Target: Glucosamine/galactosamine-6-phosphate isomerase domain-containing protein
Amino acid sequence: MATSSPTFSTSLPKFCRPYSISITSPPQVSVYFKKLDSSISSALKISRRRTTRASSMASSGITTIDQNNKKVVEVLYTEEDLAVSLAKYTADLSDKFAKERGAFTVVVSGGSLIKSLRKLVEAPYVDSIDWSKWHVFWVDERVVPKDHPDSNYKLALDGFLSKTLEIVIPPNEEMLKKSDHESTIALANLIPSEPDKTLRTDLQDVTDLILELTRSDVTVPIPPSNVYAINDALSAEDGHVASLFPGHPLLKENQKWVAHITDSPKPPPERITFTLPVINSSAYIALVVCGAGKANVVQAALGNESKLRGVFLSKWFHLKGS
Ligand SMILES: O=C1O[C@H](COP(=O)(O)O)[C@@H](O)[C@H](O)[C@H]1O
Model:
């Protein structure tokens, strides 16, 4: 895993320029699903032909293994099992990064992922995880007030983060009232930094924030290699990741770290999002897919015509038959 600290200029860091990013190769997914719908099975044929190792059938579902003997795609049959597996995976990574780097930088999406992360704030993980090492970012945020039901920030705070740590989340009425682009960026990115573990509430463009973190001793550089990004995407209607929608020009953005979208096909129309090069510079990317309506997009994504253009997954959690 790379540990280099990039040199920054006022322009975009080198590793965000097209094709110069240090990224891991997309995992060779070896798939062997016994119980998939015929539509999904057919989409998996190419992968299956490439299978070099058999999958194992765990009590909770099917685990697939790549050529490096790493579990890549895990199909769970209940949402409960998915949440347990996701918690273990995340807790293990937290442990690894905390020990190796002294920090664990996590990027979360909104959506149903937050509910699926609930096991992390239950025993045994809530006590075993060193939460003080966590640095949490949002992969995308809707431009709405932070107390709005559509806010990914609020979703994660209510459903997950406020139940962890002894994080003191100072209510900041002024910030909560703001709905402008800048405040969304600032508040969408919370840093429970040591030692006070409080939320950062100053207005700051997220790019500057990342650059500051990158330069600081508090944590190791975010891109290219110490981030764990967890996405809940593949929405029924489109198959987006973060606020990057199939067919949208923003998918091709390769100069900015964070981009603004004003015509999101999924409401609300105005959002901010990490760009694909930044997402792909994560050391680990997990995709959590729940919901019957997502079957078609799963088929496309696991097949050759991926709608997740260019997202290199480390781990895919798929809830079967929901
Ligand atoms: O709009 C968004 O939706 C997705 C997924 O939502 P879900 O309802 O299908 O779970 C989420 O990944 C993203 O962060 C969010 O802004």
